[in-house]
Amino acid sequence: MGDPSPKYKRILLKLSGEALQGKETFGIGERMIGEIADEIGEIHCLGIEIGIVMGGGNFFRWIRSHELGIDRASADYMGMLATITNGIALQDVLEKKGMVTRLVSALEVKQVAEPFIRRRSVRHLEKGRIVIFVAGTGNPFFTTDTAAALRAIEIKADILLKATKVDGVYSDDPLKVKDAVKFDCISYSEMLAKELKVMDSTAIALCKDNRLPIKIFNITRKGNILKAVTADKIGTLIRF
Q1: Where are the domains of the chain?
Q2: Closest CA to 32 of 24, 22, 40
Q3: 28 in helix, strand or coil?
Q4: CB-CB neighbours of 185 under 10 Å
Q5: Which whole-number Å values give the CA distances from 146 to 153, 173, 207, in the listed order?
Q6: 10-239 has which CATH code?
Q7: N or C: which end of the chain has fewer CB within 10 A?
Q8: How far, rounded to the nearest angstrom, does the alpha carbon of residue 10 sit from its chain's CA centroid?
Q9: Is the pTM of this model over 0.70?
Q10: How does DSSP assign 8-24, residue by residue?
């Protein structure tokens, strides 16, 4: 039996900081980042062009800023720096596994990453390089979900894949509500109307306005990144 056939030519994969954390309580889990890198390598071998947006919640979340007496804008910049840390780590692991990458930052950190220039990033993808986008949008008050939607639209990705710790979109938080119902498919409008919190509303609205489908899936199950690009029945698809 041959390799599974990919459904997409170019994807944007949103990786949360918690995804890299794995079973650790803070920072990056060595085993988890290695497994994620292996799975990215699998789909890269299928010829899929891969952009990745990094989150930073394994190091710092803005929601803690109130406890610490830090204002939201400062907290968001701290979060952006956390995404750069995660991006450097993922880049190193991917390259040690033989993949060619580029780290692209919305903040100027020229010692470790190149600045975001849309046409250059697209050219990297066309040449088969994995492009890791860090520092969100470069602006406070925007989440990395919104950054993922923005970058996906800018590079003309076929789909935005959001890797989380749950296996899709539910009517309520499945960790708190036993009878929460999972949606296999849901519209952008329903997501916004029901105020479902798996992805922020700005990101959903941006994808809706640009007709970019979103797939929410569980990254903690080994092999799910491959399934997300080759199978229909995984996670939740958000579309018109």
Answers
A1: 10-239
A2: 22
A3: coil
A4: 14
A5: 11, 21, 9
A6: 3.40.1160.10
A7: N
A8: 14
A9: yes
A10: -SEEEEEE-HHHHHTT-
For residue range 62-118, what is the model confidence (pLDDT) as tens digits?
666 667 788 989 999 999 999 999 999 999 999 999 999 999 999 999 999 999 999
Cα(54)–Cα(145) distance, rounded to whole angstroms?
A: 9
State the DSSP code for 62. G
Q: Which residues make beta-bridge pairs with 56?
A: none
Cα dist from 190 to 17, 62, 158, 217, whole Å: 27, 27, 21, 18
Stated as kind and residue range, the H or E segment containing 132 is strand 130-134
Task: Compute CA distances 56 → 59, 115, 144, 183, 217, whole Å.
Answer: 6, 19, 8, 27, 19
- The Cα–Cα gap between 50 and 60 comes to 26
Q: What is the pLDDT of residues 175-218, one digit of tens each?
A: 788 899 999 999 999 999 999 988 999 999 999 999 999 999 99
